[in-house]
Design goal:
Blueprint (H helix, E strand, L loop, with lengths): L31 H20 L8 H6 L2 H17 L3 H14 L5 H17 L3 H14 L4 H13 L3 H14 L5 H25 L7 H9 L22 H10 L1 H10 L6 H10 L5 H14 L3 H12 L6 H17 L3 H14 L4 H13 L3 H14 L4 H17 L3 H17 L4 H13 L3 H14 L4 H15 L2 H14 L4 H14 L2 H14 L3 H24 L7
Helix pairs in contact: 3-4, 3-5, 4-5, 5-6, 5-7, 6-7, 7-8, 8-9, 8-28, 9-28, 12-13, 13-14, 14-15, 14-16, 15-16, 16-17, 16-18, 17-18, 18-19, 18-20, 19-20, 20-21, 20-22, 21-22, 22-23, 23-24, 24-25, 25-26, 26-27, 27-28
Length: 565
Amino acid sequence: MAASKPVEPQSGSGLPRWQLALLVGTPIVLGVGAVYLWNRSRGKEKQGKKNGERKTPEGSEAEMILSPLDRAQSAKNKGNKYFKAGKYDQAIQCYTDAISLCPKEQKGDLSTFYQNRAAAYEQQLKWTEVIQDCSQAVELNPCYIKALFRRAKALEKLGNKKECLEDVTAVCILEVFQNQQSMLLADKVLKQLGKEKAKEKYKNREPLMPSPQFIKSYFSSFTDDIISQPLQKGEKKDEDKDKEVLNYCFLSSGYLKAKQYMEEENYDKIISECTKEIESGGRYTAEALLLRATFYLLIGNSTAAQPDLDRVINMDDASVKLRANALIKRGSMYMQQQQPQLSTQDFNMAAEIDPRNADVYHHRGQLKILLDQVEEAVGDFDECIKLRPDSALAQAQKCFALYRQAYTGNNPSQVQKAMDGFEDVIRRFPKCAEGYALYAQALTDQQQFGNADEMYDKCIELEPDNATTYVHKGLLQLQWKQDLEMGLELISKAIEIDNKCDFAYETMGTIEVQRGNLDKAIDMFNKAINLAKSEMEMAHLYSLCDAAYAQTEVAKKYGLKPPTL
């Protein structure tokens, strides 16, 4: 299920709006005193001519009228003309003159001159000089948006992403998140930082077994998965017929023991028992390889999973069902690694070798949705339903695919048709929790909040241990009633049910950011990071965490805080 988006910051929240512009110089006002000086100088000039002498250089009195600030402004204006003409060396010299002429107490003007010189250095790609001059400007005027943003861009060019993020975060807050340019830079840097950190963290992370609820939900998405089926007659321990022989077979097979542990939800022992079967070259080697690979994927160790999946796929004596299942799982792994071409190849190969396997079309349909190929996704769901008419999950996901296509395409008649389809699904499959959950998301989009709330209640009634449903219901309370207390209570309940639900920690962290509780938000994001099931998920979570941390640094440096709930 797709996670709901965090609440957008609200504009008009009382945050100061800084309106900064370059000063164009103060006009000189010629008053009575200036006229007197002018007349006096004319008189002296006449007197000098009468005496045949010239007492003062021409124009000296006019220069005496200009204050140091006026002279600095004049130098700046000259620099602006050079800048517009693309003569950056001359512009830099003029701005340097303006800086040296400007009185130190004129901080606003001085900060402008530094920022202007930084702009000229930027045109020459002199990033270090840009940073130095912008830093001077910001020191003089801590909320100078132009200087902060120009420094952020220069820091990015030099690869200093952390400080770049802090500067662009300050800019976003000052602009009340209304400027697309600064928000795009923040997003770009956050993604880069997230990918870098996730790559390092994921490579060295400790494997972590997901919750039993997650594992059961994962296996429930397969109908033709041999390894997830219960032990068959003759495989179980302590059966009455030929008990002694059967117990010997059971005890000698690591794979059968692993299957028994699956039924007992003793998941931590499965990988080791499968390894025993594989190393002994037992009867169930192919099945053990696939089961071990599946649990490697579940604990987030795709590096260990891939060789096992490769072996099963290339085993001529393995059943078609096993090989197709391995292709589905490797294809899903490639999609998590953002390799859609390899993923598509595996799903297509699975369809070729086992064309009547409903799981192939079901999971390929989900892939197509992620690739925004909705029509192809619907075709795959239709094929799955044709092979397994009782597949409630495929029916519900087909409705959701059609709904998203109609909703994003702004087609009201098709939206209504998809909503009617959801009604039909929950009528025919009243025990399918996923049908209610997907319908609830569509109802929320349509702002039918009361009906959506009822659908989530149905989900909880059918699957009281599904933590994700509580998170979605909590988010609904925020959007519907702005009931922060109830929303947080439901998300806390999700964590209580499943303390390994990364989605719950992520959502809680997002809400705490909106509340201004940045330290708590960072703690929630870090918990989610440790539970992330893929490098891509981890990169996203690091981006959220880094955004929150940047806000704490901006608050310390400049006293700036974004709007809060």
